[in-house]
Amino acid sequence: MKRTNSQNKQLYRLFMMLAIDEDMKKDLVLQYTKNRTDKSSEMTNRECAELINKLSEQASESKSQNRAKKDFNTIEQQLRRKVFKLFYDIGFFATQDSTAHKLSQINAWILKKLNLEKTLNELDETELNKLIKQLHATRRIYEESIRNTAQWN
Question: Which of 57, 118, 128, 153 could form an S-S bond across to 122 if both were Cys, CB 3.0 to 4.6 Å?
Answer without folding.
Answer: 118
